[in-house]
Amino acid sequence: MTDEIPDIDLAVHGRTEHRREVLKKLAGGIAGSALLGTLPWFAPLQAAPAGGAPSDRVRVGIIGPGSRGQFLLEHLLHTPAVEIAALCDVYQPHLDDGQRAIGKPVAQYKDYRRLLEDTSIDAVVIATPLYLHAPMCLAAFDAGKSVYCEKSLALTIDDCKAVARAAANSTKTFQIGHQRLFHRSTLYALKQVMAGDLGPITQIRAYWHRNTAWRRPVPSADLEALFNWRLYRKYSAGLMTELASHHLHVANWFLDAHPLACVGYGSINYWKDGRDVFDNVNVIYKYPKGVSFVYDSLSSNRFYGLEVQLLGPKGTLELETAKYYSENPPPAPGIVQLINQIEKGTLEAVPIGGPSWVPDLKKDTKGTPLPEDPDRDDGTGLSLAAFVNAVRLGRRAPYMIDHAYRSGVAALMGVMAMEEQREVQWPGNYSA
Amino acid sequence: MAWKLLRMRKIVLPLPDLRKESFILLGCALFACALNVYAIVAFKTPWTELVTSWPWVLGLTIVSYGVLCACRIFKCGVLYVKKIIIRQPNLGRKS
User: Angle of helix A245-255 relative to helix A400-420, nearest 10 degrees?
Assistant: First the structure.
């Protein structure tokens, strides 16, 4: 398998020269890869890495260099052909942090519209609270900028449609921050699914459990919404848009479909601290061919952590721990079976009376690990490299709008199902 | 002196003893191999396991040699105790 996806080492600490070499290697690997041929968003990486000419440089403005924005900034600083030209944030310490990371003076803005007026900027990276994604994306397209927008796409389904439509009508590049599209072990999982190692996918289960208030300390009360926007419905849809959208994206991608409908229940059963988004969500999505996606998320228990499980009659894939489990694993060597049998006969107690059935407990098998990036890059580095290359080459990132729209809308369908306590149908394509 | 008593002695194994131990170890290895062959036949697993299961065979060889050693040491111990009992001095009782 390793001949198809070259080792991708784009960790945040990587040197720019090193990344250039990696991209060169990757471009060579893609050319001969059958799998990557089915992943068109890798196409921009196929181009030769940028040279040193000014025309090869992509000038990027970062809107929202807060926690996630800072992470993206660190990656961009090590991505070839990128020049961070401007920063925009309403909170001065974030601007200062960004400036420090860049290490040289760049233009700073408090209003993103002023940044968009700068004609020397080619692209913007939007890492702001969810409710700002739509207005910022629309304004950026209007200003003729390419856009890399963090997930989820927007706060309302109408906004999702408007952004997707604007991206489709624009000649500029649009990319959504679903880094799993570029994550090495996820790509191998896709390859296994395509090879039929699971059989048909009959169910996808995912969960994201944490034991945290998800609340950040605020320097002053008037900054509450700015820091803890994820907890308020006016600015975010909570667990569904901030966490579930990742796994919904995987479900849409691997099933190559959008959900047809969904039902669900949610509540605030533990963190009664003034938030108005659910602290636990439980949603079931219906997909074509009778396949379900079952999702739940808790904020009051972290024992099971997070996982997305693809289930089929021949096996199971767990993407977060990057493992494949066959339904019929190959038997142990004969001598091991013999030793086990002797052990069992010698040490195991003989039951006199007990249940007449064997409980279907979880199989305790080790599974086969999927290859991971050497530095455990989650795909963000490669995702940004692909975006920058697409901007440099004047290409649009194929299928990105569909990925963004499907996952963004699916997350909001779940929220509507829980809030309105009804079955929510797929609201149609963005062009409709 | 105590330190002299604690000093390690150099043990030289005479050739006949070395040969005897080698044969015992070889016997254990053959036993482990035979067990592997039996397991392959009994559990219908591939014959390539004759080669691929060598770590298990090696482990079984060592374990069986160790068990055998323990049995021999026990036997020696029993014989030694028996010898002591037989050499008990006559306490003057008439039989």
Answer: 120
